Amino acid sequence: MAQPLTNRQREVYEFTRDKIQNRGFGPTVREISEAFGIKSPNGVICHLKALEKKGLILREPNKSRAITLTGETSASTIPLAGRVAAGSLHQAIEDLDQVDLNELFNHRGCYLLRISGDSMIEAHIADGDMVVVEPRAEAKNGEMVVAETQDGNATLKYWFKEERRIRLQPANSQMNPIYVDQATVNGVVVGVIRCL
Questions:
Q1: 75, 84, 146, 147 - which has most CB atoms within 10 Å?
Q2: Tens digits of residue pLDDT in 45-74
Q3: Of these residues, 63, 119, 140, 161, which one is catalytic?
Q4: Is the domain covering 7-69 a CATH 1.10.10.10 domain?
Q5: Domain with CATH 1.10.10.10 in the chain
């Protein structure tokens, strides 16, 4: 890093890093503003631009939560060791290769969230699994999203914008949908990693 951080830049960076690592997505300008008592959105944007210039974050323009960290990503390749049958018995075939997860997801700014609970079990997403989320502020009806309600709670559900409300539909026939007047889309699920 060419230039040292100011105290406020360090605080904003640590706040942003904490949100990305523990919540799965970055804070909005408003959240940063409220956390540090910065009255002007331009003041927050100046700090974010400085962090970007100093190589600590990347920002995608015109997206409220499109902040990613640089230099803290883990290895993005997983060894592909071959094939094995899931039907009748066949000899396992070794074929060492690498699968680059960046090619699949990271170019879209995707992030992972670990699932807690069983509201999406009928979509084959169980407690402890991880979903790959593409940051987006809009979704089509029927897409699986990370939605945030007015009270700041986030949930993974199917998104349905109805005439006068939003229906957040679980994939569990034992659970009822959640109906809200307003909610925001933080991202759309584009992949699932099953954790056994």
A1: 146
A2: 899 988 888 888 888 766 666 787 775 544
A3: 119
A4: yes
A5: 7-69
